[in-house]
Design goal:
277 residues; alpha+beta; five-stranded antiparallel β-sheet; 43% helix; 22% strand; globular
Length: 277
């Protein structure tokens, strides 16, 4: 049919433009960048929530093999400097290159200017690198998105997100990785600006419980980190398994309570007579 012939032609046309990052398609798209975003969509979920007391990063650990020694390396959350950390979703090998660059940039700035690097500046540095990998031939875009949490004397606590195209933005709460769209819609609905750190941690867990593919969440499947101020100085803390388990228990209790209230509400509605107001 004419329609199928047109579809075949469109498919062939797309393949002419998706092998190089430097060539735009007739619709103005860079297919390799879109494919990099698709790869991130299959990665473990990463979530960031900004509160008035600090920032929370939560991440889903895909590797839960019993024999893997997890004490020597982080899988999803990395400390970049005393006042900045990031969480990664996508190809870990690509993330390692960017994390090394971020750490070097932070120390180079500290050595040159004798003050910690502002959070947005370090994000723009790495986004410039990401963008250059979409514009020069022979290079592949980095298949990783990052969430950055940080604090500086200019803007206080901050949360940023960047993607393979080199775009970045500041967020109150954001999510990357698998099921990120569903998680973002829940965050839009449930996030309260000016919330406490405890509320932010609870919100992060509740979102992950609703969106992660696994039926039951446990502390060994999650990485949690917070950035707070201690005696006026930023302090990054990686939560222990016991602390994560406590937050999971709180979230589960809250979920059961909400379900019980919803059930009682439905039963009360059903008991009402048709003529009652």
């Amino acid at each position: 049919s004419t329609q199928s012939t047109w579809e075949i032609g469109a498919s062939k046309m797309a393949h002419r433009y998706d092998t190089r990052t430097t060539i735009f398609s007739p619709e103005g798209r860079l297919y390799q960048v879109e494919y990099a975003l698709e790869a991130i969509g299959h990665a473990g979920t990463c979530l960031g929530v900004l509160s008035k007391e600090g920032v929370v990063l939560a991440a889903e650990k895909k590797t839960t093999a019993k024999l893997l020694d997890t004490s020597t390396s982080a899988e999803k959350i990395y400390k970049l400097d005393d006042h900045i950390a990031c969480s990664v979703a996508g190809i870990t090998a690509d993330a390692n290159i960017l994390v090394d660059y971020l750490r070097t940039s932070a120390q180079r700035h500290l050595l040159t200017f004798q003050e910690p690097i502002p959070v947005e500046r370090i994000v723009t540095y790495v986004c410039d690198i990401k963008q250059s990998y979409t514009q020069y031939g022979g290079l592949r875009p980095f298949g990783v998105s990052l969430l950055y949490m940080g604090w500086d004397r200019h803007h206080g606590f901050q949360l940023y997100q960047s993607d393979p195209s080199g775009n970045y933005g500041g967020w109150l709460a954001s999510c990357v990785g698998s099921n990120s769209q569903a998680a973002q819609s829940i965050l839009n609905q449930d996030y309260t600006e000016g919330c406490t750190l405890a509320e932010a941690k609870l919100l992060a867990v509740r979102v992950l419980m609703k969106t992660m593919d696994s039926t039951t969440l446990s502390s060994d499947k999650l990485e949690f980190a917070t950035l707070t101020l201690h005696n006026g100085k930023p302090l990054m803390t990686v939560l222990k398994a016991e602390e994560v388990a406590d937050i999971l228990k709180q979230a589960e209790d809250m979920r059961k309570k909400e379900e019980a209230e919803e059930k009682a509400k439905k039963e009360a509605t059903a008991r009402k007579k048709p003529g009652e107001a």
